[in-house]
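Dear support,

I submitted the protein below through the web form. The confirmation email said the job was done, but the results page showed an empty box. After a refresh the structure appeared. I'm attaching both so you can tell me whether what I see now is the final result or a partial one.
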Amino acid sequence: MKPLFLISLCAVFAFMSVPLSHSGGLKEETSPDKIGPVVGSSRVIEVDEFMTNVNRYQGPVRIRGVVSAVSLNRQMIGLIDKKEFDSCKIVTCAQLTLPVFWTGRMPQVKNTVLVEGEVKEKERRLIFVARTLKKVGSLQEGSR
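What the results page shows now:
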């Protein structure tokens, strides 16, 4: 459990060093390279639960989180735990950030999203690769 967690944290730090940007609205989208439906548990996992118990979730999983950062050039988003965001209302208060590789249209910072995918090796690092991403809410939902 510890090596994967440490590698995930290294990926977060590497991700956070790239330029961040905000993107337009988002409904629901599937990555163009989707290889099939997500199998396994239909239970939704929160970001902190996944990050602290990553070895328990081998294969495809569904994770809910709040978008804390978007990198268009790296096709990456950062997700933080929704409960943590709800308590502080800012995206910089989270202790853990899950780096997510996503090739579809990017969500906005503060959007609550549901991602389906799994941990894979990318560029010699372990990272969560999303197959689908669906907006499920945001702090300012309904406004532009």
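Response: this is the final, complete result; the empty box was a page-load delay. Residues 17 and 41 are 34 Å apart (CA to CA).
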